[in-house]
Write a structure and sequence with these properties.
It is a single chain. The chain is an alpha+beta fold. The protein has 10 helices and 12 strands. The protein has 3 domains: about 30-125, Beta-Lactamase (2-Layer Sandwich), CATH 3.30.450.20; about 130-215, Helix Hairpins (Orthogonal Bundle), CATH 1.10.287; about 220-375, Histidine kinase-like ATPase, C-terminal domain (Heat Shock Protein 90, 2-Layer Sandwich), CATH 3.30.565.10. The strands form 3 sheets. It has a 5-stranded antiparallel β-sheet. It has a 5-stranded mixed β-sheet with strand order 7-9-10-12-11. Strands 6-8 form a two-stranded antiparallel ribbon. A hairpin with a 5-residue loop joins strand 4 and strand 5 (about 120-125). Helix 5 packs antiparallel against helix 6 (about 185-215) and helix 7 (about 225-240) packs across helix 8 (about 265-280). The chain starts with a helix and ends in a 7-residue tail after the last strand. The structure holds adenosine-5'-triphosphate and magnesium ion. Magnesium ion binds next to helix 8.
Length: about 375
Amino acid sequence: MSDTTSMGVEQGDQKNSILRLLKEAIEALPIGITVSTEHGKILYVNLAEAINHGYTVEELIGKDFRIFAPEEHWNSLSFEEIHLKGIWKRESIHIRKNGELFPVQMISIAVKDSEGIPAGIVVACEDITYRKKAEEEFMKHQESLYQREKMKVYGQLTAGVAHEVRNPLNAILAITEALFLDLGDKPDFQSYLTHIHIQVDRLSRLMEDLLELGKPLIQSRLKKESLFDILNSAIDLWNQLPPSLSHKVHIDVLSAQNPLYVIADNQKLQQVFLNLLENASQHSPEGSEIRMKVLQYGSTTLISVADEGTGITSENLSRVFEPFYTVRKKGTGLGLSIVKHIVEAHGGHVRIRNNDPMPGCTIEVSLPIIEETTI
Ligand SMILES: Nc1ncnc2c1ncn2[C@@H]1O[C@H](COP(=O)(O)OP(=O)(O)OP(=O)(O)O)[C@@H](O)[C@H]1O
Ligand SMILES: [Mg+2]
């Protein structure tokens, strides 16, 4: 063999071994690789691509590469258009053999041979389900931080306004009472005075509620309290209100630990359950039942208040905790905002959902509990 021939053989061997190495690397890659003709017929897939999409390699060879995407995500770029882009990078949605959808990050390259004739399209495809989930979690976290900040500013602002308005209101209320004493028996004035009294009273309550939203818990009022005492006190208070008359409250205790203790501002937690009972009775028919259930999961208690009322439309479910959101003519829309504020200040959470099956809805309050032996 001449020198040039043996050099040619050597170079050929080197090329082959590089190609083999490349093939092994592509086979072992955790990222899916597909090579198809310019018309999209699959010529090669690595194992990761087949497994990601729930197929065997054999099942995919010869198929149209659109097998990987649901119809609405088929892209319409031609070979030439992809070639012009150089590298076409995008996120999309793919579909597994069992119909499950998942997000992917894709890179496509349209390759031509040395004569400029289309050789094929190479696509690298990565399942980005975990990345997307992490991104969603991050966004949710950011959103809740933003909401908390917003509520803090809102609380400070409203507390300031409410504080300023409360004193003149009390003065108007006192003057109205004095006028009542002087003129209350004169029919000409009575209806005006009653009207002023009702409206001022309403404004005073609104100011109290607004002040409540801006207030943090007072540490010295936090004590070890029996949850059942708090619930019973809230029911007693509620029983003194007119709408309570036509409803019955049942408490089901499904808790391993009885009594249950929480670290709480007793009055504030009473207000939470009073607000929930008020809402339940305002939105459910006379004679219907309101059920309170107390459950325990480890160091958390879950108290639910379920009614048999109207329930809440799905578009409003996410809005009911917003301050001033109300569909009641006489409501201020602060009841549930106060509930959320107080429960979260106690380290708990509130959720609302419609009953399944309907009618009615259920509010769930979770709170951390303490061991009986803890002081
Ligand atoms: N148990 C319930 N059943 C149906 N809808 C409810 C229930 N609880 C709350 N809602 C809806 O959520 C809205 C907000 O409730 P929220 O208690 O915050 O305000 P409100 O009851 O309207 O006024 P208030 O400030 O007097 O409590 C209500 O207007 C109502 O549309
Ligand atoms: Mg209410």
